[in-house]
Amino acid sequence: MAILDGTYITAMRTGAAGTVAAKYLSREDTSTVTIVGTGVQGRSQLIALCEVRRIERVFAFDIDRKRCEEYVDEMRKRINAEIAKTDDLQKAVRMSDIVVTATPSSDPIIKGEWIAEGCHVNGIGSHSPDARELDENVITKASKIVLDTWDAKKVGDISYPISKGLFREEDIYSDIGTIIAGKKPGRTSAQEITVFKSVGTAVADVSTAFRAYQLAKERGIGTPIDLSGV
Fold first, then answer.
1. Which residues does 88 contact at the CB level (< 8 Å), separation at least 6?
2. Whole-structure pTM value
């Protein structure tokens, strides 16, 4: 039916997935966000979050200082919020209503004792059993652990505390689809700490690509090609 840029679609659908989770799991009065990792996902996650929450202040953190500065300059033009680079990740996390991790880190970069009451965490970057962005205390401290799909339980952020006997698989609260469908409630109090762990799923890419295809057809965008002779 169409050939589309999968890299861009993945960036957009993952940003949207994190934001849907934040819609159901973060406090409605959320105003301060910390973005850890200022690459592609650091951009799409923040842009999408501004669609569902009134974000007023953003802390950006990256071990690559130059890339972080470039991110801040770009995002100041794209979102209506105060945004600044921070070198004190612990302080930024303690002050945040939402924390987004979007890094390739193998070792935890967010500690549970930094997470304030009422905070929501979107763990986006890690996607393998040996990758962890959140330490075990983030998981054990949370009131609700929610996954994009149940495959996310295999990622190090979740599998490590399970393997150490610190957390049980049956203590995972839900997948996000069950909450969206209204079969389980999302956030139920201003005090609880919530965590959304995303590992990604191909059906989200396909459905997003199909919607982009539909819109392109409606608007006459794109280049038709004839494959009948191939």
1. none
2. 0.92
